[in-house]
Amino acid sequence: MSVARAIRKVFLAVEQAEGAGARVRRSVGTPQLRNFSPFLMLDHFSVKPGAGFPDHPHRGQETITYLLEGAVDHEDFAGNKGTIGPGDLQFMTAGRGIMHAEMPAQNTDGSANVGLQLWVDLPARLKMCEPRYRDLRADEIPSVDVDDNKVHVKVISGQSHGIDSVKDLAYTPVWILDVTVQPGGKVAQPLPAGWNAFAYVLEGQALFGEAGNQTAVEQFNNVVFEPAGDVVYAEVDAGAEKSARFVLIAGTPLDQKVVQYGPFVLNSQEEVYQAFMDYQTQTNGFERAKGWESEIGKSMVH
After folding, report:
1. For an engineered disulfide with 66, which of 12, 85, 92, 116 has Cβ 3.0 to 4.6 Å away?
2. What b/e readout covers 97-129, taking b as 16+ CB neighbours within 10 angstroms?
3. What is the 3-state secondary structure (H, E, C) of 33-83?
4. Distances (CA, A) of 279 to 152, 178, 275, 276, 289
5. Residues 288, 291, 295, 300: is their CA dihedral positive or negative?
6. Is residue 151 classed exposed, middle or buried when 0-12, 13-18 and 19+ CB atoms within 10 A define those classes?
7. Confidence at residue 107, expressed as pLDDT on a 0 to 100 scale
8. Cβ pair 277, 233 in contact under 8 A
9. Do residues 69 and 114 lie in contact, with contact meaning Cβ atoms separated by under 8 Å?
10. Nearest to 133 by CA among 60, 66, 52, 64
11. How far is CA 294 from each of CA 47, 101, 114, rounded to the nearest angstrom?
12. From CA 146, how far away is CA 235, in angstroms rounded?
């Protein structure tokens, strides 16, 4: 018998300012949801032309950017650069140090570039690894339809209904599923035992939990599941006016202390001080920051 994962809490991700003129709805990494290893932060961002995330450093974490609308350019001090479009993802491992810029496309109609950015902690033994990038294009992501095609699951990483994403894109094992449920549709999604998991509702209203014990969750809300149990149930009321779309994300908890200061995520206060020193003195991974400026970030310099 499958045991449903109980819901620990549901809360709204409130919109706030971030970066240079960007708007984000942050759910993971707020007072509502901290210390949810391996997850450090989840931002649902909306960045209009003229705003963005100019040159900034990172150490000790991985960032996963999933673009929903528009395009985002990235560029770093190692000469890596590229663009992701709708449905594409970028996995960036900061490791011992990276400095980069992430800038939205200047859409001629003035529309915003919308997506999710998830920060995942790195195991202590990999904190000082070499930085790396992997891009995952929309057409590389397998998908599966279930419940008479009323449920569509994009298997970005992990497994769903016999479909395996095949790719290991992050050092810390993480599953990411993009699920769309039409009115009257229902889905039962198994998750690895003991992994921390949450769902973030992008559109519509979804009912989470087993029949008779369901919680209705609205757009922009985060649903945090208890670690016990092996399956998440979700459905959309048959009388609903529109489909619901949510991302279901799960990851293996890391048994380590998290000491975070802005873009540096390490295991002790001393390591954070060291990261500041290394960044300021351009050593121990930040050598290439010396004199570096991104081309794409210059549009923000007034």
Report:
1. 116
2. bbbbbbbbbeeeeeebbbbbbbbbbbebebbbb
3. ECCECCEEEEEEEEECCCCEEEEEEEECEEEEEEEEECCEEEEECCCCEEE
4. 44, 36, 6, 5, 8
5. positive
6. buried
7. 85
8. no
9. yes
10. 64
11. 19, 7, 22
12. 12
CATH of domain 7-251: 2.60.120.10
pLDDT at 301: 53
pLDDT digits (tens, 9 = 90+) for 159-209: 999 999 977 788 899 999 999 999 999 999 999 999 999 999 999 999 999
Tokens of 148: 């008479």
Three-state DSSP at 276 gives helix
Hey, where are the domains in the chain?
7-251
Q: Which H helix or E strand runs over 301?
A: none
User: What tokens were used for 140?
Assistant: 């590389």
Pairing of the two strands 174-181 and 206-208: unpaired
pLDDT digits (tens, 9 = 90+) for 30-41: 999 998 999 999
In whole angstroms, give the CA distance from residue 263 to residue 75: 17
SS3 264: strand
Which residues are documented as binding site?
Answer: 56, 58, 100, 102
Contacts with 123 (C-beta within 8 Å, 6 or more apart), sequence order = 171, 172, 254, 256
**Sign of the C-alpha dihedral, residues 60, 96, 44, 53?**
positive
Residues 6+ apart with CB under 8 A from 103: 52, 53, 54, 72, 73, 74, 296, 297, 299, 300
Q: Using an 8 Å Cβ cutoff, are 33 and 49 in contact?
A: no
- 115 neighbors 69 (Cβ within 8 angstroms): yes
Mark the binding-site residues for Fe cation, compressed into ranges. 56, 58, 100, 102
